[in-house]
Amino acid sequence: MRPLVTTAVLHFAGTFVAALALGASDAMLAAAAVAGTFALLLWFASLHSTDSESGLPLAGATAAVGLALTGRSPASSLLPLVAAQVVGSVAAGGLVLALGRVNESATLVWDTPALTTTAVAGVLVGLIASWTVLAVDGGAPAAWWAAPTFLAGAVLNVALAAAVAPAVLIGLATAGLITWTTTLVAAGAALVGAAAGVYVVAVVTPSPE
After folding, report:
1. What is the CATH number of domain 2-204?
2. How far is it, in rounded angstroms, from Cα 60 to Cα 38?
3. How far apart are CA 75 and CA 70, in angstroms?
4. 116 with 37: CB under 8 angstroms?
């Protein structure tokens, strides 16, 4: 139960920061705020790691999918984790919607993204996210988690910088900051990319002699 509460709280915080960042005066500042927050959340998640099981799936569904496929996280925990992440994100999205003013100040929202671009970029973001989380699980700094977040913000839109944590996109859609169609395409593509990333890593990583 504790991991589920933890991941819900982390996604509540991530969603709320991502929503507030859309009111920033500059896109770079907004992307930096989201990327820095997500890196911090991944570090918190890493505190739950053990020698036999990674705690990084608490940081997002892309991490959960990648680590489940590598055996570093039990596949049986995938659905409960994702459900808890959605609950936390939707709660934050509901709060943002209730505040009202946040929606009005969201000057960086892209209302009509091309769905093809969103899908292709979403796969790329998921791919990079998968590589990053595997690197962090192997001992790399948690700050690397900012890389796929910046990528998503640069090639898509600041509102979709949270694609590394698909549940956060659902929270932003709940707040009315991005459309549900865009959310589903970006989230689904990121998950596909995360799964593919695990197999691509196996191909490009040199085999130990």
Report:
1. 1.20.1080.10
2. 9
3. 10
4. no
Distance CA 59, CA 100 (A): 27
Give the confidence band of 24 by pLDDT, cuts at 50, 70, 90.
Answer: low
How far is residue 92's CA from residue 86's CA, in Å, rounded to a whole number? Answer: 10
* Per-residue 3-state assignment (H helix, E strand, C coil) for 45-71: HHCCCCCCCCCHHHHCHHHHHHHHHCC
Using pLDDT thresholds of 50, 70 and 90, give the confidence band for residue 157.
low
Ranges of each domain in the chain:
2-204
Q: What is the pTM of this model?
A: 0.84
Mean pLDDT computed over 29-39: 77
- The tokens for 166 are 């698909």
What number of other Cβ atoms are within 10 A of residue 121's Cβ? 24
Would you tell me the crossing angle of helices 180-204 and 61-69 to the nearest 10 degrees?
30
